UniProtKB/TrEMBL annotation:
Entry's transmembrane regions: none
InterPro entries attached to this UniProt entry: Aldolase_TIM (IPR013785), Ribul_P_3_epim (IPR026019), Ribul_P_3_epim-like (IPR000056), RibuloseP-bd_barrel (IPR011060)
Name of the protein in question: Ribulose-phosphate 3-epimerase
Gene of this entry: rpe
Gene3D superfamilies hit by this protein: Aldolase class I
Pfam families with a match to the protein in the record: Ribul_P_3_epim
Positions of substrate binding: S12, H70, G146, F147, G148, G149, D176, G177, G178, G198, S199
GO BP field: pentose catabolic process; pentose-phosphate shunt
Organism: Roseinatronobacter ekhonensis
């Protein structure tokens, strides 16, 4: 996984057909997805429940590129090895999931996976500075986690300050929640490079007719790249 700040679109399989994850991952990758974003929810840290390491392991052979695993679970540490063995390339834990996030990030890196830190909309950047050396990605939540299809909460100011804090370090800024061709440009302009999108990617398509996935991915990417000045 080489580092680049080019815009990456990461469809969240939370909005895919749960009976068809393998085919859905292949379909969105064929249609231009850069990463596959996997939302793990435990019914405790967030109210919703999705799936665990066994499902991630089953999905892995169907993902050619990066498998980006977002853990909305607490505690995190007992499950890190399981998700790493399931083939996660990036494992992201929440700042709010416990008092020992530094240890959690160390444990993620120790598995060989890249380490990500997610920040809820109500969480500031205060704790991030002391963690920079352990980070490969910061995920700025633009919804309160738990469900797909929620309204975007503008975190432009936080993203701009985070981008300045990161400076030249190879740390991705990922945005998660409510990403559409209308909202993605705001985040790209503020400094984000990974855009997670569930509903806005999977709407209108299916594994039988995946071309809308491609249309949707291109619409988000084109809008975001235009905002950063990247030639499209
Ligand atoms: C929210 C999840 C998101 C979600 C995004 O808890 O972490 O990844 O699936 O879904 P949309 O794009 O529908 O807001
Ligand atoms: Zn997510």
């Amino acid at each position: 996984m080489s580092f680049s700040r080019a815009i990456k679109i990461a469809p969240s399989i939370l909005a895919a057909d749960f009976a068809n994850f393998g085919a859905e991952c292949r379909a969105v990758e064929d249609q231009g997805a850069d990463w596959i974003h996997v939302d793990v929810m435990d019914g405790h840290f967030v109210t919703n429940i999705t799936f665990g390491p066994a499902t991630c392991a089953a999905i892995r052979p169907h993902v050619r590129g990066v498998m980006d695993v977002h853990l909305m679970i607490a505690p995190v540490d007992p499950y890190i090895e399981g998700f790493a063995k399931a083939g996660a390339d990036i494992i992201t834990a929440h700042m709010e999931a416990g008092p020992h996030v530094h240890r959690t990030l160390q444990a993620i890196r120790a598995t060989g996976a890249k380490a990500g830190l997610a920040l809820n909309p109500g969480t500031g950047l205060d704790g991030v500075e002391n963690l920079l050396d352990l980070l490969d990605l910061v995920c700025v939540m633009t919804v309160n986690p738990g469900f797909g299809g929620q309204a975007f909460i503008d975190m432009s100011d936080k993203v701009r300050r985070l981008r300045a804090l990161i400076g030249p370090r190879p740390i991705h800024i990922e945005i998660d929640g409510g990403m559409t061709p209308d909202t993605a440009p705001l985040m790209a302009r503020a400094g984000a490079d990974v855009l997670v999108a569930g509903s806005a990617v999977f709407k209108g398509g299916s594994v039988v007719d995946p071309t809308p996935y491609g249309t949707n991915i291109r619409a988000i990417r084109t809008a975001a790249e235009a905002a950063t000045g990247t030639v499209v």
